């Protein structure tokens, strides 16, 4: 199984935002609803950080590319018809699927690994 990792800067931003919302919840003393909403937002950021740290951005296992996130998207590597590079993103078109990969949040080493893996297949690059 190959894992395409997030940049540490991206993950640390998620962690910082989670702690920032906790600080807001305890520092602002206006209304109890604001405190609960701030705590809920902080838990969402911290939960997202934990999920992203554990699962990473993309996994490639048994010729299946999976983009991990709120909604997992999968595509078989041998079903990829076209890959379009646009504005720093890879837009991958399959038979029925369309997956967008944001290359700005991927570590350099992992991005090279992803490119090497995709070049192993006869894919039309645009």
Top keywords for this entry?
126 residues; alpha+beta; 2 domains; 4-stranded antiparallel sheet; transmembrane
Number of helical regions: 3
The CATH class assignment of the largest domain is Alpha Beta
Main-sheet strand order equals: 1-2-3-4
* SSE-based structural type: alpha+beta
The appropriate CATH architecture of the largest domain is 2-Layer Sandwich
In total, how many beta strands? 8
Distance between the termini: 27 Å
Order of helices and strands: EHHEEEEEEHE
Query: In the CATH scheme, what's the topology name of the largest domain?
Result: Signal recognition particle alu RNA binding heterodimer, srp9/1
Integer-rounded radius of gyration = 18 Å
The 3D shape can be described as elongated
Largest β-sheet summary: 4 strands, antiparallel
> What is the beta-strand fraction?
25-35%
Provide mean pLDDT, rounded: 89
Low-confidence sequence ranges: none
**What portion of residues is helical?**
40-55%
Counting structural domains, the number is 2
Verbal overview:
This protein has three helices and eight strands, in the order E-H-H-E-E-E-E-E-E-H-E. Helix 1 (8-27) packs antiparallel against helix 2. The mean pLDDT is 89. It has 126 residues and is of the alpha+beta class. The two termini are 27 Å apart. It has a four-stranded antiparallel β-sheet, with helices on one face. Strands 7-6-5-8 form a four-stranded mixed β-sheet, with no helix packed on it. The protein folds into two domains: 2-55; 62-125, Signal recognition particle alu RNA binding heterodimer, srp9/1 (2-Layer Sandwich). The protein is elongated. Keywords: Membrane, Transmembrane, Transmembrane helix. This is Pore-forming protein.
